[in-house]
Fold these 3 entries.
Entry 1:
Amino acid sequence: MADKKQELQLRKEEAPMESEPTRNRRVFTPAVDIIEREDAIVVTADMPGVDDKNVDISLEKSVLTIAGKIEPEHYADHRISYAEYDVGDYRRSFTLSDMIDQTKIEAVMNRGALTLTLPKAEPAKLKKIQVKSL
């Protein structure tokens, strides 16, 4: 049972070194909650300030990557004297196991929280292969 649970877990993937951001700004790793249900794994990523138009989700070679962009606010006739809040983009990648049905992944963005539903794949069924003679 422990082996099965380990297979279902998402493993954090390091950001690929061959790609560099083209925007000169900080990139944050969004905090996530991962919940396993009987039929799916649900990942909620906290990306404050990001709306659904600025989220990019890609899946390549079992690596699921989420990215969110924020445009900083510029204040006319104001100069910031002191700021503790830093604005930047978000990026995080996960390697999906074979237990996830990659064709049925769903994503919903709501007030800076991205919720990904990763449905579990059907268990492989025994398939009988007929042998023909020549």
Entry 2:
Amino acid sequence: MIKKVLIANRGEIALRILRACKDLGIQTVAVHSTADEEAMHVRLADESVCIGPPPVRESYLNIPAIISAACITGADAIHPGFGFLSENATFAHMVEEHGLIFIGPKADHIAMMGDKIMAKKTIARLELPTVPGSDGALTKIDKAIKLAEEIGFPVLIKAAGGGGGRGMKIARSKDDFITSYEMARHEANISFGNDRVYLEKYLENPRHIEFQIIADKYGNAVHLGERDCSMQRRNQKIWEEAPSTVLDSKFRDEFGNKITKAISAIGYIGVGTLEFLYEKGQLYFIEMNTRIQVEHPITEMITGIDIVREQILIAGGEKLSFKQNDIKFHGHAIECRINAENPDTYMPSAGVIKNYHCPGGPGVRVDSALYEGCKIPPYYDSLIAKLIIHGYNRQHCLARLRRALGEYVISGVDTLIPLHLKLANNQNIINADFNIHFLEKLSEKTD
């Protein structure tokens, strides 16, 4: 059993992990930069260690400082949360080399799925559908253009070593292929230190569907259904739902079982998310995230399963406490990412929270580390809160969402609350008629 966890993250996910540890009776260590010394998770942790100045490379990406903090405080495990070092295979390996437990999958699996080309090949070998595209990295521009013509324009040029929409460019014709190719490589190199790119068919109007899985070291694996993450801006999710309105229970069960068999076949351990594009009744694999997801709460709401708790227990050597047949889906859940951004331009907003009122009532959950007087520094991701709503069905969920958004008060910085209110009242969204381009097109109409 794990006795003390160092939380190698910040913000709401650090607080979420801390709460799961408290529920399990596990001691916690918070690490923080000098910009986060008054953060909520730092205040509530049993111990805290400053690991550097605000820049992430000197603090939250500072592997020696984080591992040293774990050793000094006597932690026996490290939870990376999401972002930062959560999908860094080198970090996972170093944690284990120092006799600590990495609360996540094996380093080999992180590396396998972190390389998008290798991930796609692995998934194809496991007989799950993938988007038509190149077998590997693009090396010669003439061959790349020829392949694009064979697949058919438009095509998507994507970074092999990362995700989050960076290093991703659309080429709609042969004429703009070279420009898109060079831009994708340049952006990939800046973002990930790896300029390898590959090619996929560009699907015009897909939904973004992902399946949550959990597996233990004893060969047990389950799926917790799917989430629809189609509401995106600049390839970044801002609104997620569970379950999706485009999959029925039969499809969910059959496809979910295929995924769990595939995960078991490679010996995967821990939580993970397989992401797909859905178009015309077909799912196509695009990537796997080998960590807890930002949007995990909506799955928790419809299943009643504490995913972070299970993640910690599995890392500590426990067996899954449930089987596939034990998992039942109840109602509908929606998560709105409350980013400190201008709701029209998406420009990040830093400052001090002057007034803060959290919504409540039935079916309302808020994951946030905010409090009146806390500082939102300019150095990190703009996500400051997640509003998670559960209802008996989707329309009931939307009604509760509108109520909660109307109650939510955050002043001192710009937030996406006005945008989410606009979306919650949009007739297309009410009718579940949207795809991954919906928000982009809505913004164009507004402009």
Entry 3:
Amino acid sequence: MTDLLSKILERTTPGLEKALDLQWRRHEAISSNIANAETPMYRAVDVSFENELTRAFDQSDNTMLKTNSKHMDGSGSMTAHTIGDLSGVTKPDGNNVDIDIQMGKLAYNSGQYTNVTNLLRKQMGVLRRMITEASR
């Protein structure tokens, strides 16, 4: 049973860590949009969480892919690719940030971040129990 749990933790923890990194990058992008809501010609940006996480993992064996120097790697900090966020209407000054939409995205992203941290916390609890049982 311990071997099975160990294998599960080995395969899921890196994915959860990458999810946290990507959600943090998305939080930074949304925060930048909010900070520039009144900046003329500023165009809102976002991080496509699904696309970036899919790029990070090979679905077949859960290992990192890096086929291009511009791709993310699994060693350290990730640089997520930003995409244009066209959710807001472009105002006469060229800015397309809708503060209400961005605040909603920020709240949603914060909830997702909290969910992943809770999963990691539960995994660490399982790991702690495994260590405690192994030392008996």
